[in-house]
Amino acid sequence: MNHPASIDAVSAYALPRASLATRLAFFIAGFGLACWAPLVPYAKVRLDAGHAELGTVLLCLGLGSIVGMPLAGSMVSRLGSRAVILAGGIGLMLALPLLALTAHMWTLGAALCLFGLSLGAIDVAANVHGTEVQQRVGRPMMSGFHGLYSFGGLVGVSGMTLVLASGFGVLESALVAVGVVLVCLVLALPRFLGHVAAPSAAFFVRPQGIVILLGLLAMATFLVEGAVLDWGAVLLTEIKGMALSSAGAGYAAFALAMTLARLVGDRFVARLGIRRALVIGALVTAAGMGMAAWGHSLALVIAGFAIAGVGAANIVPILFTLAGRQKVMPTSHAMAATSALGYLGVFVGPALVGYVAAWTGLVLAFGVLVLLMGVVALVAGLKVAPPPG
Length: 389
Fold this sequence. Notes:
Blueprint: H1 4-36, H2 40-47, H3 51-79, H4 81-101, H5 105-137, H6 142-165, H7 170-188, H8 209-239, H9 249-263, H10 265-272, H11 274-294, H12 298-312, H13 315-325, H14 331-360, H15 362-383
């Protein structure tokens, strides 16, 4: 029989290692996705594709992710987070060179499906593992974990842009990214918590009750993030008069503010509690988006995007914490459902913003996002109960 002291000693040794493994997994997911952004113009030239053709094939990334997330939920139950993150990492390392090389629409679509499937698998497995680590440690950690996703995104897009600007070819730049993913995998794999296999786990569990609600709240929050990514530069140039060369400043401010807020977000959540942190985060996001939509100076608009990033930063980590602690579904399936519903906001949301903007104008389309985050605050205050413990 193990003595309590020996168990505590093992936990004291294992949990910091497991925490590092989780952070590396989140970093891989954010880094891998962001590395694709600078490669898109090169792919468009290779394919000689128009905007509509490219937009259509880019849907394959979302399709792969949406397929990969429920599949990963089942595989985590059966094989554990380590195995799923390893498989997803290998998929990323195969997909990145293909994305840099392929010159045909169908092969690019297949590579994007593999890319999205791999990212979706890593996302679900990292959230499941992060929830387990957080529960064992006994304090909020998910905001910090998601902060590494955001940090990975900043490193990925800036690093890939720098490598390409330094004269490296597209394939060589993709192989540099593969090397970063490989190093992170090698460092992370020995540090994951052990897993007790559940071979009888159901392959698919229909989302229920609170999990659907959490997924819808995540969808709304991701919709705002996708809108800033895809429409923020258009708002700045066409409505606010910013030079085209500086149009990325809005999303840069949003992403940087989100990253910094996530790195300190666990203390914020611990002090305020789950419900209050959700409500305040949604209201701050709404205020920031309102400043961006109706601000009369560029400085005010950019500040609005940054404030929205601060507000949105900790909403999704809290929602994943709640998905990990609910009792109506197995944790891995709940994570998969929350992820899949949430990421629909990223993939479908910008198109919806475009439709609303065509009808009402872009400023009022951003105003709809303000109302949406107000609804998130209201629902979080009335319907979302803090988890036990």
